[in-house]
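Project standup — Tuesday

K.O.: blocked on the structure for the chain from last sprint. Re-posting the sequence here as requested.
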Amino acid sequence: MRSTARRSHGLAALALLCACSADEVVPARAGGAIEAMIRAAAGSVPELPVVGPHLNWSPFLCMMPPAARALHSTVEAEDGHGSKIYALRSNQGGPYMKLGTEEEVELPLFTVLIKEAFTPVLHAGEDAPSPHSTPGWELAASHGYIPFAERDGLTYRTGASRGLFVMLRLPEGTPDTMDGWAFGTVDPAGRVTGAGAMESCIRCHRAAKHGGLFGWQAE
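H.V.: unblocked you, prediction finished:
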């Protein structure tokens, strides 16, 4: 009951910010309105269901905007294992999982997709807990997922938060969006570091097969 109340509160706040109709959203000044919606979406993360059966790996280009620096410096490239581990959360997880299948799917307005990213830490112990084991069930209950991922035969666990990467579906034609999709980044401290038609996000998502979305990645 308490969890349901928290979820309703978080998503209700997002719905209010998104407004009730396309007529109310499209003419709005996109900058401040979209930033407010990104902030509301970030606040709903603990209540949003996790999409898919396991954590996934994020591509190198999916990164936060660089922080301001006192002196110029170059960003060092990350190696193959430097990618983030992420859990995908959404208020439309079921339809999202069907993208790319024979069933035709169109995600509704005000769909929220949030990539909750972490630094991968090599797991030095035994294999990750099985979803069917008691530790696995306990981890899933507390996190919403089992916080381990595998790559190249190695097991990694979630380390420090790398922030949130948010997509919101607004009416097509809403200013400062990609065909209605607004992007946002929220740093681990909860600060919105980007909102709207973020070029760093659009570079990849513009070529995605499912209307700006990649769909569930098997691994």
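K.O.: great, moving the ticket to review. Residues 2-65+80-205 form a domain with the Chalcone isomerase fold (CATH 3.50.70). The longest strand covers residues 154-169.
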